Recover the amino acids of this structure.
């Protein structure tokens, strides 16, 4: 069995994407096996993202209405619903569009910490793990003061996020008195990125903070510490 959507129904998805500032050109109309919408032996119309595994599939329900499946959902990876009237389908379309927007606007901070840790591990292999010298501590203090100022002056952070980040900087400073240089560099990056994750800092704000951290860390490491993508 084949399924076709009305032009007005296809347009509803177009409008939903535009409504959350997504580019419809990043999506294609295609088809997928209908297992998750109750038609395992048929292909069903599907709007799919060109570079991400995101889709919205629609099929008729034999008892009336529509079956849908889409990913991502508001709170789950995949949503499957059956026997919806079209007005209810449009509500789900809007939820899907918001979820797609949420995902494509995210920066993968876990990937970032991997990208930071790798180059740092290589760089740190070139210097010892002796305690930081008095001169290095002074340089560190100056860099961390600038990082604190960046955090405190950033109006995109709420009070809780600011407090968590400042506490992380305090822990980073404290660690400099307890561990060797090589270990401290890794603590610096790990503590900062894990706090950005835990505090749910917006990606564009996280980039600014990581840039400021990179300047502070470079003064100690003596070479670019953070990749340009940050």
């Amino acid at each position: 069995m084949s399924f076709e959507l009305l032009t007005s129904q296809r347009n509803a998805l177009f409008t939903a994407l535009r409504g959350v500032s997504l580019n419809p050109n990043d999506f294609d109309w295609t088809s997928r096996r209908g297992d998750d919408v109750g038609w395992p032996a048929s292909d069903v119309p599907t709007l799919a993202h060109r570079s991400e595994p995101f889709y919205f599939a629609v099929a008729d329900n034999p008892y009336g209405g529509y079956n849908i499946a889409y990913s991502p959902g508001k709170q789950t990876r995949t949503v499957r619903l059956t026997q919806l009237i079209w007005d209810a389908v449009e509500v789900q379309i809007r939820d899907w569009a918001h979820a797609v927007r949420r995902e494509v606007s995210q920066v993968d901070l876990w990937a970032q910490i991997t990208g930071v840790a790798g180059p740092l591990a290589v760089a740190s292999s070139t210097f010892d793990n002796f305690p930081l010298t008095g001169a290095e501590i002074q340089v560190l203090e100056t860099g961390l003061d600038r990082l604190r100022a960046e955090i405190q002056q950033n109006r995109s952070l709420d009070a809780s996020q600011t407090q968590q980040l400042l506490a992380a900087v305090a822990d980073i400073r404290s660690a400099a008195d307890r561990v060797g240089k090589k270990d401290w560099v890794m603590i610096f990056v790990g503590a900062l990125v894990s706090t950005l994750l835990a505090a749910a800092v917006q990606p564009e704000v996280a980039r600014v903070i990581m840039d400021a951290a990179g300047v502070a860390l470079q003064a100690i490491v003596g070479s670019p510490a953070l990749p340009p993508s940050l």
User: Anything to note?
Assistant: Residues 134-153 form the longest helix (20 residues). The CA atoms of residues 148 and 222 lie 21 Å apart. Residues 223-230 have pLDDT under 50 and may be disordered. The beta strands are 27-34, 39-49, 55-60, 66-71, 79-84.
